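User: quick one, fold this
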Amino acid sequence: MRVENLCRSYSYHHHHLYFPFASPTPQADMEARAGTALYPLHRCKTIYLVRHAQGIHNVEGEKDQTSFISPALLDAHLTSFGWNQVDCLREHVTKCGLAKKIEFVITSPLLRTMQTAVGVFGGGNCTDGVNASPLLMVEGAGHSGRQAI
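Assistant:
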């Protein structure tokens, strides 16, 4: 699985969106533009957009396109492959140090997006059960078979 398919980085800098993954030298491109900007680059925030992992609606939609408009699949949960994608992305953002830089996560109210966000970014500080942050996802949410986070 390629993590790039799930996670793209966009930096917001004085009303401009930079697309670092599209440039052959993204750092040089950003530094060149930063010199002419009205707002210092070190004061800017980076926005990461993550698409939800594979949900049951994706699998059913590949079999029959009309499944995409099925009310039964509107709030689809992740598949086991989707949870594998979540685990891979969580491992990636942890190894590259990105997990420590995330300040805020926003998600839609759909179950698959919340499962992806919580699975990737949530629960990292819940280690001793005493100083745990509030529960983000109950055990087995959306037929996941996963422990509470």
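User: anything notable?
Assistant: The beta strands are 7-13, 16-18, 46-50.
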